[in-house]
Each structure stands twice: as C-alpha cells, then as structure tokens.
Design goal:
A hairpin with a 7-residue loop joins strand 3 (32-40) and strand 4. It is built from one helix and four strands; from the N terminus they run E-E-E-E-H. The protein is mainly β and 101 residues long. It has a domain at 1-57: Thrombin, subunit H, CATH 2.40.10.
Length: 101
Amino acid sequence: MSLRYVSPTVDIREGDQLVSSGLGGRFPAGYPVGSVLSIHRDPGEAFMTVEVEPAANLERSRHLLLVFSEVDAYMNEPEADSSDGALSQTSDAEPGPDGNE
C-alpha cells in the first residue's frame, strides 16, 4: 500500500515499522500498521510517497472491520427536498379577511 503526502523532512527509512498514533481516537496508539518497503522522492515534488507492506496478511484474512466516521455519514444523508410535493408544517402567509390563508 502507498502512504502519500509524506513530508520530505520526516526521518523515515526502509524497514521502519509504522504504528498508529492514537491521535484520531479511533485506533489505540501503537497498533501495528506495516513496515516501510521503499521511499520515493521525486525532484520538484513537495511530498514523498512511501510504499508500505501491511502488518496484516490481507490475502488470508477472513474478517474485516468497516470503520465509518460520523462526518462521512452526515455528508451522505439525503437533503430534504421541497420539490417532492410535501406540504410544509408551517406557513408564513398572512391570513385573509375571513381568517383563512
């Protein structure tokens, strides 16, 4: 797998072990992620790309865990559409002379 947008000032070497930081609160700190296979530094590019061998044996795994963030779930909720013919619960119209709208 590829780790993109790595700052060129980061002290990283082939063989380094990558672990979770715990900063996002989703995974505990120190959870093994993988090991660095290679580092690609392209002249003129602002960031490096790091190739990582996953710690998990993805080809033999029988189980997986799907993790969704609340932000993603919120972003994918359908918005209320007033063009669906539903009547509004409130009205801003002024009542007519007989008290009706």
